[in-house]
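User
Class, as today's exercise, I want you to study this protein, comparing sequence with structure tokens, and judge whether sequence predicts the tokens.
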Amino acid sequence: MFYVFHVDVNSAYLSWEAVYRLQQGDSIDLRTIPAVVGGSEADRHGIVLAKSIPAKKFGIHTGETLYGARQKCPGLVVVPPRYGLYMQCSEAMVAIMNQYAPLIQRYSIDEAFLHYQLPPSMIQGQGAEAAAVAAALRLKAQIRQELGFTVNVGIGPNKLLAKMASEFQKPDQVHTLFRHEVPEKMWPLPVQELFFVGRATARKLRGYNIFTIGQLAAADPQLIHCWLKKPGLLIWQYANGLDDSRVTDEPMPIKSIGNSSTLPFDVTDRATAHQILLALCETTAMRLRKIRRCAQVVSVTLRSSELITYRHQCRLASPTDVTSLIWQESCRLFDNVWKKEPLRHMGVHLSDLCSNEYYQLSLFHQHLEKHHQLDRTIDALRLRFGTRAVFRGCFSHSSIQPLMGGVLQDQEVDYPMMASYL
């Protein structure tokens, strides 16, 4: 007998920032005041990444501009993100979860599923449900006591119902959504609150007079399929609490990898654009080699100062993980697609990945093996001594960072682990 727990950190980035700052001697808890974690406005990354509950009461929502957030709350406190800290907090939470079950599936940096196996002597029924709730309460309390931040824990017979349960009242709560509770707890909810139902789908369903999850569950599945095709059958099953996916610790196969960056200034010349592409390719290719993959498709994404976005891609003659080759192809794509307008955002993405255990030699790249060895040596040096230990000479006197589009430098900081300040 088992249950699935869904553990979700309350206002993750904001909570992690708050606890870390309290540990460093700050007197104000960011969670108790209107505060947000936001990007750098000077670097034109000025959007809300996470918000406190008091900030939410002002109508501030994740993804809006910091300018808009300040219009709603003039006294808003804005703090910059520290992704390295957040990764460490996430790892610490998963380490505690591993004390309760060996099978953990990380859903995102602040969410994870846990397969909680009841003792063999425990029979199905209220006793089993009570035991699962007791375990979830212990888990929640241990995270709060040892790490200082709060989580919601949803309990259900499958991943769907556990995730739906964790979205009930917040923060610092344990909620259940057992099968016999679905009609009472889930069916009265608006249909847009069902997992996998987005705004467009909800709008279509309302057009067919389906406003609640219960109405969707009671609808004819053939009609839902007719209206929404294959995804319609999936959300109909979800509305009925059906989900046969298992908690698994196997990582999802990576189908593509990429890095992009909103630039602190408008790019108006080809040479600067090529240098930025090089910095993006350095980061992307290093990540590609880390997962032992080669790419067969390279794409370049550009966004103008007028916020017009376009993308161009091509298939390589043979798969590669060599930084210089990926950069050369990215520059060629850029030259073909750039319309000479000022650019505020650039990105490089790699797809159609395959193993890098074997690769095809090319008559046009006679020194390919030397490039492979050079890239791997640079990767090893950066891993040991930091991402700025080795970089290309063209970045020596440049305002452009030698690696762009990632959070690598912040991850090098060793943040002391937090303790409870609640």
